């Protein structure tokens, strides 16, 4: 059967044929598809999983492919460059070359170490033997990206310029630098006819190989190729075989210690290999050969070029083609060419007939699953002698030999780069095989390389102690001390952290291009080095690292060498005696910092880096979900450090106790329905301390009720009257209260009824304070209620006001008794699956509240958005810390198209395709009725809430979402700056909300705000417990404390609810739930306009006199001063003043 998508594809093919052959006849339009068309349909289904993905690939290729027919200025420039190269006169200078070049205002880009002053060999210049285009441009695999693309021009230096031993002691690189300086001098000369911005740059970040970079200057001349958005790179090369290849084998030494002035090196160490040095020379000798190899692959495989484009886009988005890494598009192309080449048995891993997508997926599969450490890859057989696979493997982490068997194409790729590549490839391969979602954007359109989105931990290391670590032996093959330490650091961390982490990667600012008259830049030890960690959640917080047994002396010595004084020999309960490292932690938050503590120790032990030079923002961010310096009487330090265990234990005990009491109808279910029971409350729940609660000031008296839903067994004796059902519920509450207090005298219960005699909603509940100090607020669920409410709404007997009342009651019932318990169970399960989700939710809630957005974003809505980031991590792996989770949540808030797309969060993995279609249909109907997103600006759907109305039906409004996105963008910018600067103090800004945008501020008396103690930095004087004049009365008073305690009493929220009920049509209110002692307000612009006067206008008004002269109906305006006076009067005793910031 052909799907609708297949019919669309066939129609597109027919239209294409019509353009070629003219109008189609009726018979031609409906004739059977050809074999080619059927194959396309089959490929779209089996290979791409959907026609949409295939079309997206085709569209992407058309967008990133450059138009080679519009490169005339570039082609002219390239031809002119060739004529300039041919016209440069020969030079032969034995001495004073530096002074000679300075006359042309050019500093020769000699690599470090600089050449000695008593040079005994000659420098010279002759025009290039060959000038060739190499790289992507002649192969037609250039890809548009965030930056310009490169046009590479190789200039082969004549072999007569070199002597037999020039491969030693940097002589080749010095002559190469001089050659490129002469070229620069010729191009800079005004006689050249070119007006270009010319600078030096390192080729692939190899500090031994400078090149020239030519950029256009927008002068609109015939050589202005600025529209091409590219730069030209001039790359000096040499003839293959110029130096005896055996002398450049990976195990050979070509930098003598005496040349570097290293007299302390022993005779044995002086023969240490210089594989990086040797690889740099060999790589300069083979670019044309490599281009020919790629050309042959492109010739034999029609889709090779398109697959290269896809690979480069993928690499670009992951930071592999920005010049900071050695793995680039060239290596991707060579690996794909290797996979297309028949192996020793004649089989191919990739077939020439594959589509570009198949080639891309096959290459990703190979990168993800091939063990490069054990199985090196090679296009041509190793040349033998000193070029064996074992010789390459012993000197390079990544071995990929070209067709000659001599050149390791990946000789400059570090181990952590390879690990990062494989990590990204594994994640991508999983996405390519996931047919449940469309991952196209994640694969090709999203930028993945930003530190604060990519890594769970970002460690910033400043002021590397280069002198104490950069040994004389290291100097032989590592001319840059900074880069040497940076390469060694991930190796040590990988070894020490072991299975705690999935990836350790480094990142630092590399040397960019520099002017022709400037010296070669040197990496400064003050350049910050960033270490990114992706944690393995199963082992990240492990308290003990076990090493080898005492009997394995060699391995034990290695373990002690790795950990230093942190290692110790211990006997464990299983009887084993092993070397180990034990981490002491007293709280859940401290467990999350074990990785940081281990990194700090390893860097200090191996690199002498002081702990003050190591910054990690993870811990600083999580400090914001801890109560700030509360007095010991209020905060039990022991309980606060064990997280949610006490409240979970108290609930489980309460569950058992409820089951044991006798009731007319037994309890069939007891369900948690509160953030405290799903690991998502901003603060870990604090038990009520009866001994001191009465002596606490009002600013510290808030007690959080923990919602629980009780379900009774079914019975046919429940009445068919909603009011009567509420009365029977109250009777059950009294019965449960009596049963608990009689069975458990140390429990305190209170039955509360907040409704009236005619209330049809569930307005009563039972508060139970258990001995552990937590208060559970119990509500009884009765399925008879929802039936009566639905029947009443469906019938015709209700008046319009009664119908509204029934609808509100039904929505409240579903929220309290269906959606919230289910939501709690799902979030609790996901938090157990992803331990750091709890931190992400808590930090995110704190952020929303700190910016006074809490009245507009329900806790459940925030939890769903956070859960989405973990369930659908997209281009990244799932978050492994609250730090990266919080960043990605803000990224989602700012980047998701809330106006045109719902956010579908499948918490229990049960949403079917038909239900997804239903969600989209309901969303489209909603947007059709509310085009400007005044209500339901965020639609978050779940399997229990397909229309997304439960948690976001009325709020946030569109204007609130706009503010949230603005604040999220500013926060992310601040977060990026904090990461780059390693500044903990910068993080404080992200929880400080700007107040200047509000029209007025209602300031409250902090002493009357019962949640004041939850603010970031409360005044400790306001939350200290009151003393007692007669201590012998304290014990007597404590017995009545629980009965007199007002559970969940928050006067600020009550006041806010009252003024919202009265003035929400005119004013948008903002408030920080967690300790805020201020309410902000913004007048709705539509309500400030003049309106015709009428009786019962609904607000205090004044006439607009100047416009009433010629009008029959007078106009009125809101009486703002009077309204604010009424707002202040309603808060008498709580409101201290109202500050007007913007006059209207």
TrEMBL record:
A Pfam family it matches: Nrap_D2
Main subcellular localisation: nucleus
A single GO molecular function term of this UniProt record: RNA binding
Limits of the Nrap protein domain: 151-299, 303-446, 453-608, 637-832, 834-992, 995-1138
UniProt subcellular location: Nucleus, Nucleolus
GO terms for biological process, alphabetical: rRNA processing; tRNA export from nucleus
Entry GO terms, CC: CURI complex; small-subunit processome; UTP-C complex
Xref: Gene3D superfamilies: 1.10.1410.10, 3.30.70.3030
The entry's keywords: Nucleus, Ribonucleoprotein, Ribosome biogenesis, RNA-binding, rRNA processing
Family in the record: Belongs to the NRAP family.
Listed name of the protein: U3 small nucleolar RNA-associated protein 22
């Amino acid at each position: 059967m052909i799907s609708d998508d297949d019919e669309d594809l066939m129609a597109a093919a027919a239209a294409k044929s019509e353009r070629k052959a003219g109008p189609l006849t009726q018979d031609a339009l409906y004739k059977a598809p050809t074999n080619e068309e059927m194959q396309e349909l089959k490929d779209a289904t089996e290979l791409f999983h959907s026609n949409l993905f295939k079309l997206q690939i085709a569209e992407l290729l058309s967008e990133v492919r450059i138009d080679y027919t519009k490169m005339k200025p570039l082609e002219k420039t390239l031809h002119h460059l060739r004529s300039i190269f041919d016209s440069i006169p020969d030079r032969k200078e034995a001495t004073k070359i530096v002074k000679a070049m300075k006359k042309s205002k050019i500093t020769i880009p000699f690599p470090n170490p600089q050449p000695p002053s008593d040079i005994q060999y000659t420098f010279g210049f002759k025009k290039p033997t060959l000038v060739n285009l190499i790289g992507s441009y002649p192969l037609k695999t250039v890809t548009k990206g965030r930056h310009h693309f490169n046009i590479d021009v190789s200039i082969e230096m004549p072999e007569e310029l070199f002597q037999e031993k020039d491969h030693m002691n940097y002589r080749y690189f010095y002559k190469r630098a001089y050659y490129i300086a002469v070229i620069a001098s010729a191009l800079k000369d005004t006689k050249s006819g070119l007006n270009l911005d010319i600078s030096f740059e390192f080729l692939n970040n190899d500090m031994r190989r400078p090149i020239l970079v030519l950029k256009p200057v927008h002068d609109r001349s015939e050589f202005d190729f600025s529209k091409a958005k590219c730069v030209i790179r001039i790359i000096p090369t040499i003839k293959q075989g110029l130096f005896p290849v055996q002398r450049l084998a990976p195990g050979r030494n070509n930098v003598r210690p005496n040349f570097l002035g290293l007299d302390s090196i022993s005779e044995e160490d002086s023969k240490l290999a210089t594989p990086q040095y040797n690889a740099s020379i060999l790589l300069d000798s083979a670019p044309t050969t490599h281009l020919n190899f790629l050309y042959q692959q492109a010739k034999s495989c029609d889709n090779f070029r398109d697959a290269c484009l896809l690979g480069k886009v993928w690499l670009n988005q992951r930071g592999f083609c920005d010049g900071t890494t050695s793995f680039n598009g060239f290596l991707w192309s060579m690996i794909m060419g290797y996979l297309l080449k028949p192996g020793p048995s004649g089989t191919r891993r990739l077939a020439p007939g594959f589509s570009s997508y198949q080639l891309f997926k096959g290459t990703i599969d190979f990168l993800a699953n091939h063990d490069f450490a054990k199985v090196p890859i090679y296009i041509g057989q190793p040349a033998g002698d000193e070029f064996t696979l074992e010789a390459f493997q012993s000197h390079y982490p990544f071995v990929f030999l070209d067709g000659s068997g001599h050149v390791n194409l990946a000789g400059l790729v570090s181990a952590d780069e390879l690990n990062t590549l494989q990590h990204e490839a594994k994640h991508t391969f999983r996405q390519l095989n996931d047919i449940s979602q469309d991952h196209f954007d994640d694969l090709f359109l999203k930028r993945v390389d930003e530190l604060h989105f990519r890594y769970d931990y970002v460690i910033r290391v400043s002021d590397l102690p280069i002198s104490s670590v950069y040994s004389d032996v290291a100097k032989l093959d590592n001319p840059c001390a900074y880069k040497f330490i940076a390469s060694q650091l991930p190796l040590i961390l990988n070894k020490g952290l072991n299975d705690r982490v999935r990836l350790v990667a480094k990142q630092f600012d590399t040397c960019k291009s520099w002017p022709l008259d400037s010296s070669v830049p040197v990496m400064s030890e003050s350049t910050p080095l960033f270490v990114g960690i992706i944690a393995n959640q199963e082992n990240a917080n492990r308290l003990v690292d076990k090493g080898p047994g005492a009997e394995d002396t060699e391995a034990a010595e290695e373990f002690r060498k790795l950990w230093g004084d942190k290692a110790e020999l211990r006997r464990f309960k299983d009887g084993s005696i092993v070397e180990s490292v034990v981490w002491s932690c007293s709280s859940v938050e401290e467990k999350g910092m074990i990785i940081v503590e281990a990194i700090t120790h390893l860097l200090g032990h191996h690199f002498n880096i002081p702990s003050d030079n190591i910054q990690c923002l993870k811990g600083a961010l999580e400090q914001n979900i801890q109560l700030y310096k509360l007095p010991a009487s209020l905060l039990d330090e022991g309980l606060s450090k064990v997280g949610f265990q006490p409240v979970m234990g108290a609930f489980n005990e309460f569950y058992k106790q409820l089951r044991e009491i006798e009731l007319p109808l037994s309890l069939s279910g007891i369900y948690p329905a509160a953030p405290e029971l799903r690991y998502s409350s901003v603060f870990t729940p604090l038990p009520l301390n009866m001994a001191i609660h009465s002596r606490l000031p009002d600013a510290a008296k808030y007690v959080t009720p923990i919602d629980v839903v009780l379900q009774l067994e079914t019975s046919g004796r429940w009445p068919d009257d909603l009011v009567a059902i509420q009365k029977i519920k109250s009777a059950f509450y009294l019965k449960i209260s009596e049963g608990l207090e009689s069975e458990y005298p140390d429990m305190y219960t209170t039955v509360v009824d907040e409704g009236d005699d005619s209330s049809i909603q569930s307005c009563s509940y039972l508060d139970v304070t258990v001995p552990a100090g937590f208060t559970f607020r119990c509500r009884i669920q009765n399925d008879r209620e929802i039936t009566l409410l639905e029947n009443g709404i469906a019938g015709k007997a209700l008046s319009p006001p009664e119908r509204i009342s029934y609808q509100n009651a039904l929505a409240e019932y579903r929220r309290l008794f269906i959606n919230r318990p289910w939501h709690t169970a799902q979030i609790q399960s996901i938090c157990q699956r992803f331990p750091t989700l709890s931190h992400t939710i808590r930090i995110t809630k704190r952020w929303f509240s700190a910016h006074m957005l809490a009245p507009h974003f329900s806790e459940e809505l925030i939890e769903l958005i956070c859960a989405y980031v973990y369930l659908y991590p997209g281009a990244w792996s799932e978050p492994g810390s609250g730090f990266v989770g919080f960043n990605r949540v803000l990224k989602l808030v700012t980047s998701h198209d809330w106006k045109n797309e719902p956010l579908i969060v499948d918490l229990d993995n049960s949403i079917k395709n038909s239900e997804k279609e239903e969600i989209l249909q309901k969303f489209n109907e909603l947007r059709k009725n509310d085009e400007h997103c005044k209500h339901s600006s965020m639609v978050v759907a779940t399997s229990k809430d397909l229309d997304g109305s439960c948690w976001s039906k009325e709020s946030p409004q569109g204007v609130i979402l706009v503010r949230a996105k603005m604040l999220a963008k500013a926060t992310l910018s601040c977060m990026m700056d904090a990461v780059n600067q390693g500044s903990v103090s910068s993080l404080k800004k992200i929880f400080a909300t700007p107040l200047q945008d509000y029209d007025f501020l209602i300031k409250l008396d902090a002493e009357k705000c019962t949640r004041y103690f939850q603010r970031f930095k409360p005044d400790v004087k306001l939350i200290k417990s009151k003393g007692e004049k007669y201590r012998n009365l304290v014990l007597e008073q404590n017995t009545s404390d629980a009965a007199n305690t007002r559970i969940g009493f928050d006067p600020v929220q009550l006041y806010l609810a009252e003024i919202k009920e009265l003035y929400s049509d005119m004013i948008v209110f903002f408030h920080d739930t967690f300790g805020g002692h201020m309410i902000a307000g913004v007048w709705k612009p539509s309500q400030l306009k003049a309106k015709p006067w009428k009786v019962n206008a609904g607000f205090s008004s004044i006439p607009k006199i100047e416009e009433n002269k010629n009008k029959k109906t007078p106009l009125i305006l809101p009486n703002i001063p009077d309204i604010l006076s009424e707002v202040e009067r309603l808060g008498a005793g709580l409101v201290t003043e109202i500050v007007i910031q913007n006059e209207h």
